[in-house]
């Protein structure tokens, strides 16, 4: 049986984690894979830059959300990616849980001028005594973690488990990208403008780019970001079904600013 020719495409970007993992799966099944990537690098939102002092930092995500049955967490362990001390996040969630318990059982006795941060500070002092080596740093880190996740206070925090990638995501990205880098045809700087599917049995999928190039494939898997899909629904011919466009338009996500 002849291998099929498959392309993963997304204007900005397509060689992100979804596209790279999808390429890996299809390569395992004998497909010939082409990845059309709008940028000049892999990784999508997962990428790093070096500071003037040589320190490598994540410009995108650097948390692993959930450690149970999480393949990213498994890859982090396999690649030796250093994660932040779980003790700090565990202490933070314990304090949040105690804060809600205190509010429910002793709410009438609570000083209304005291905030959750005040409760945190008093509890951190109790849980990280001065007799502990490096206690000031430990207290500060717990408070920093609490401030970073302040937006999630009020959720079922007792079920939240998150790890910080202290050594960045670069080893994880390298692991996920290796099959595609070794075996797939990655076309960098290729921004797709339209995807046209021909009718009939054996119909090919035509992919056009802003650079004026045209590609023909048996199948196309689109792993573009949600924002690109929202702005480019007219790139698909024929149009996507109403249920899909409605789902795309109804979805949304927030933004987490990072200061280095």
TrEMBL record:
Organism in which the protein naturally occurs? Parascedosporium putredinis
The UniProt entry, under Pfam families, shows: Amino_oxidase
Any one GO BP annotation for this protein: chromatin remodeling
GO MF, any single term:
flavin adenine dinucleotide binding
Q: What is the lineage of its organism?
A: Eukaryota, Fungi, Dikarya, Ascomycota, Pezizomycotina
Task: Name the chain's protein.
Answer: Amine oxidase domain-containing protein
The record's section on InterPro entries has:
Amino_oxidase, FAD/NAD-bd_sf, Flavin_monoamine_oxidase
Q: Which Gene3D superfamilies match?
A: FAD/NAD(P)-binding domain
Occurrences of domain Amine oxidase (ranges)? 17-85, 169-259
